[in-house]
């Protein structure tokens, strides 16, 4: 894909990703890592957009809502070309995984292979606001454990891309996932990320095989406290918001 070369690292074109391996990781752990998905220059370019006045539909200061500390901005339509290409290119690879999850969990809804068709469904239901976002954290900031749901139509997987350099641009600020299995204590996992690394993870719940078939496991995600510096993240959510 000629367009992909402008923002993906040479070794991480979409066709070079082992999506079967990704599906296995998601089934087993609820998340999967795509190392070095974005080139450093692309990371810097997207992070630099945070201070621009145009291109966003809203800004959220987390402390005002009890979400944590730090802030984020939702992109407006039309999305930046890089963000649009990533969202459109990743979705078809995740739709079969999402459909398999829904089948195992006994859910009736299925997802089309084309992202535009899924957005048509969201928009017909009143979910018309774009959800890709850019997050910014400074020293002392953090993001409480949460889920990005936004409406009745929820795609069960999402992506976060770290845009900053750990140990250089910031310290601390680890990406954290938790899962809650029925009648068990919650389990937390820290996912180490470098600049340009992406993590795919469950938005809300995923199926886990038990002795009597599959059951649902709840997931939440967040970011631990940033000790110093500034941390930027690109969030790619595939459903739009009501």
Fold and architecture overview:
It is a single chain. This protein has helices at residues 19-29, 40-48, 62-65, 81-104, 115-124; strands at residues 31-34, 56-61, 68-69, 71-75, 133-137, 142-146, 157-162, 170-172, 175-180, 187-191, 198-202, 205-210, 213-223, 226-229, 231-237. The protein is of the alpha+beta class. The strands form three sheets. A seven-stranded antiparallel β-sheet has the order 1-11-7-15-5-4-2. Strands 3, 6, 9, 10, 12 and 13 form a six-stranded antiparallel β-sheet that branches. It has a two-stranded antiparallel sheet with strand order 8-14.
- Helix share, percent: 10-25%
Shape: globular
Summing up helix and strand content along with how strands pair, one would put the structural category as alpha+beta
Strand content: 25-35%
Query: Strand-and-helix sequence, N→C?
Result: HEHEHEEHHEEEEEEEEEEE
Count of DSSP H/I helices: 5
Overall number of strands: 15
Low-pLDDT stretches = 1-6
Mean of all residue-level pLDDT scores: 93
Strand order of the largest sheet: 1-11-7-15-5-4-2
Radius of gyration: 17 Å
Question: How would you sum up the major sheet?
Answer: 7 strands, antiparallel
How far apart the termini lie comes to: 33 Å
Secondary-structure topology with pairs:
Blueprint (H helix, E strand, L loop, with lengths): L18 H11 L1 E4 L5 H9 L7 E6 H4 L2 E2 L1 E5 L5 H24 L10 H10 L8 E5 L4 E5 L10 E6 L7 E3 L2 E6 L6 E5 L6 E5 L2 E6 L2 E11 L2 E4 L1 E7 L5
Antiparallel strand pairs: 1-11, 2-4, 3-6, 4-5, 5-15, 6-13, 7-11, 7-15, 8-14, 9-10, 9-13, 12-13
């Amino acid at each position: 894909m000629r367009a992909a070369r402008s923002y993906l690292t040479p070794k991480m074109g979409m066709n070079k990703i082992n999506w079967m391996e990704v599906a296995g990781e998601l089934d087993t752990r609820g998340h999967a890592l795509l190392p070095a998905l974005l080139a450093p220059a692309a990371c810097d370019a997207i992070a630099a957009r945070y201070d621009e006045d145009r291109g966003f539909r809203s800004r959220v200061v987390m402390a005002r809502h009890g979400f944590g500390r730090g802030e984020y901005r939702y992109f407006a339509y039309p999305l930046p070309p890089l963000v649009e290409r990533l969202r459109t290119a990743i979705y078809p690879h995740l739709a079969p995984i999402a459909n398999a999850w829904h089948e195992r969990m006994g859910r009736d809804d299925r997802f089309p292979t084309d992202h535009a068709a899924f957005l048509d469904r969201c928009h017909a239901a009143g979910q018309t606001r774009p959800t890709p976002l850019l997050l910014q954290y400074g020293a002392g900031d953090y993001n409480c454990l949460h889920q990005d749901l936004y409406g009745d139509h929820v795609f069960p997987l999402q992506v976060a891309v770290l845009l900053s350099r750990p140990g250089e641009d910031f310290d601390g600020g680890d990406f954290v996932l938790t899962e809650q299995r029925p009648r068990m204590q919650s389990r937390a996992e820290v996912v180490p990320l470098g600049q340009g690394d992406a993590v795919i993870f469950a938005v809300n719940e995923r199926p886990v095989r038990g002795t009597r078939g599959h059951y649902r496991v709840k997931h939440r995600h967040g970011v631990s406290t940033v000790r110093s510096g500034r941390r930027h993240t690109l969030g790619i959510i595939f459903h739009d918001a009501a």
